[in-house]
Amino acid sequence: MEFSELIHKRHSIRAFSSRDVELEKIHRILEASNLAPSAGNLQAYKIYVITKHFLRKELARASLNQGFIADAPVVLVFCADPKRSEVRYLERGVRLYALQDATIACTFAMLAAVDLGLACVWVGAFNNDAVRKVIQVPEDIIPVSVLPIGYAAEPPTISTRCEMKDIACWL
Prior knowledge:
The protein is of the alpha+beta class. The chain has a single domain, classed as NADH Oxidase. The protein contains seven helices and four strands. Strands 1-2-4-3 form a four-stranded antiparallel β-sheet.
């Protein structure tokens, strides 16, 4: 699919069918994330792949009871690993670059999922400590996004977007 078609096709989907996502597609999504640009190519992020239903339910609870997370057959949790960026970039690597690395990797995963005929939604509303507990990571690993992935159970609701004049500032 052409890139412009892909970005127009991407929508936030919160209703997933019970159909499993093929392992090959999960691997292709992870490969796309691995190809995402990162500060100094340090890839200061980790991706946790959650397929077990009881863990998806725990993630849904940790994400302010957003039940649709448990309904997705696969959930990726993207976390910043600031220690990787700190080595080269010190405080800016800790506070910014690791977070950017994780968000760019998640964005690549979203686009890869759509390209593979899947649906997803970026979830940023969650309790950090509760998510850490579910995925069993220490405090220095920072959850950035939860990405439920599956086959859409219904067509997307198309949301309106800002006008260019409201977001682009020409200098």
